[in-house]
Amino acid sequence: MSPGPRKSFDPDLALERARDVFWRRGYDGAALSALEAAMGIGRKSLYDTFGSKRELFLRALEHYGDTVIRRICEGLEDPRGAPLENLGRVLHKLQRHHASPQSHGCLLGVAMAQADPRDVELAAALRAQLARLEDAFARTFRRARADGALSADARPRELARAFVGLTQGMALVGRVTATSAVPRSMVRAALQSLAS
Amino acid sequence: MSPGPRKSFDPDLALERARDVFWRRGYDGAALSALEAAMGIGRKSLYDTFGSKRELFLRALEHYGDTVIRRICEGLEDPRGAPLENLGRVLHKLQRHHASPQSHGCLLGVAMAQADPRDVELAAALRAQLARLEDAFARTFRRARADGALSADARPRELARAFVGLTQGMALVGRVTATSAVPRSMVRAALQSLAS
Fold it and tell me: How many angstroms separate the CA of residue B128 from the nearest CA in chain A?
């Protein structure tokens, strides 16, 4: 916030703030001036440290994976809980989050929606983060099946992909719905489908 | 494609082409020059006919609802098919579509991902299109329950919301996945959940 020149800044904090601007506004919508203001640095420092807006975005995506996505995965694989209990807790937490008016959805979803289909580097970066999530879901369903909480013919990988799809859809729809009824229904139907 | 001046153009066709630019590139990413080129009109005609880029986008969204979304709803409610057969056919068609390298996802999803949360008019327009889809899913599940194809305690509205979420997620993930395995898994798991 200081208007004077500054020689040093915290690149991690700056990256987190850039991440939040991209999260809220998407890649195209994140103006350089908004990024600079949030990061508290000038254009020269931004380019010197992060290279370009595009590289900053790829770094922000990685940061998102190492924080937000990692916490979701840890929640799914919490050793203190049974797999499907962990799943229910994580989904309800996501549901509450996406139902709040402050929710910006999921940065991965925002980025996927904007990604130029020909941009193979960005697509690969997004797939890598989605894979983290899918793998954590798959391990959760595999453990649940081993515990007998899911039937023996359940397919953990397919279920994992469906749940990644569902959570992405929930994050997206949550951006424009004002009530919590819609995401709550989604979670209830998904959990119900496992119980039967 | 004619470089000469033209006095008249087909507003419907121009709108459809604008829709496709927004679909591929999103709102922020759709440059006015790209819209003009696709629509085959100059900036003055664009503004005279559609008002502004924003109004053009809202019109394109409506056009998408009256074409793409309407066809999905008609597929779900095809009177010749049993409700869950219609559902399977529609989902497999969507899955094939979103797995193709040409897929741009769903215009609603792209727009939701980019929507400024404070833009209440756009959010309402998006909710209206989502509601069309949700209602068609809900009627399908209600008929399936009445036919005995779904159990008596199935909740059509919740299922409908979950399937809207899943199809949105599938459209989104399809934008960055090169293989058809992921969307196919999603559809299989979702249909499987109804069968059990």
Answer: 10
* Domain range annotation of chain B: 65-195
B138-164 per-position pLDDT tens digit:
999 999 999 999 999 999 999 999 999
Please state the ipTM of this predicted complex: 0.85
By CB neighbour count within 10 A (0-12 exposed, 13-18 middle, 19+ buried), where does A116 fall? middle
| Integer Cα distance of A193 and B163 in angstroms | 12
User: Distance between CA atoms of B20 and B38, rounded to whole angstroms?
Assistant: 9
| Smallest Cα distance from A24 to chain B, Å | 8
Query: What is the model's pTM?
Result: 0.88
Query: Closest chain A residue to B157 measured between Cα atoms?
Result: A185
Measure CB to CB from residue A186 to each of B26, B161, B182 and give the nearest one: B161
pLDDT digits (tens, 9 = 90+) for B13-30: 999 999 999 988 888 889
Using a CB-CB cut-off of 8 Å, the residues of chain B touching A123 are 175-176, 178
Contact (CB, 8 A) for B66 and B72: no
CB contact under 8 A, B172 and A168: yes
CATH topology (fold) of A58-195: Tetracycline Repressor; domain 2 (1.10.357)
